[in-house]
Amino acid sequence: MLDKDLAELYGVETKALNQAVKRNTERFPEDFMFQLTREEVKMARSQIVTLQKGGWGNYAFTELGVAMLSSVLKSKKAIQVNIQIIRTLAKIRELLATNEALHRKIMEIEKKYDGKIKEIFDVMGSLLDEKVSKKREIGFK
User: Fold this and answer.
1) Which of 13, 27, 28, 33 is nearest to 78 (CA)?
2) Which of 25-34, 54-63, 85-94 has the lowest mean pLDDT?
3) What is the rounded average pLDDT for all residues in the chain?
């Protein structure tokens, strides 16, 4: 998540959020947060109109970084927002795992029945070809 979005959720200015993080840099290693490059910022700003407004520090936080923010932002709102974000991220992870299992099951079924399904489509295709060729032509000869 971007620092600007998190600051808005927590009800603080982006600058205040980034200052809290900078005062606690040891809590935010590279896999918790990172600064976007100039090229990434340009690309993001061209794709997301709201980024053209000020107050954006160019930082992105991973799920781990979002969790760590609750230790540096102490307001009651920050704690409640953080709990909701962590719950949402956990739900997304759960849904992805469910979809992955479903995807694997579909692939297994496809491998098992792929040959039979192809035969059915081949037969259907040949039946359609026969119907098309038997049509009577309209017009003068």
Assistant:
1) 13
2) 54-63
3) 79
The span from the CA of 104 to the CA of 61, in Å, is 30
Beta bridge partner(s), residue 2: 60
Of residues 55, 63, 74, the one with CA closest to residue 28:
63
* Cα 32 from Cα 37, distance rounded (Å): 16
Closest to 65 in 3D by CA, of 1, 140, 118: 1
Q: Tokens 């049509």 label which residue? A: 135
CA distances from 16 to 7, 13, 108 (A): 8, 5, 51
**SS3 string of the chain?**
CEHHHHHHHHCCCHHHHHHHHHCCHHHCCCCCEEECCHHHHHHHHHHCHHHHCCCCCCEEECHHHHHHHHHHCCCHHHHHHHHHHHHHHHHHHHHHHHHHHHHHHHHHHHHHHHHHHHHHHHHHHHHHHHHHHCCCCCCCC
Amino acid identity at 36: L
Residues 6+ apart with CB under 8 A from 20: 72, 73
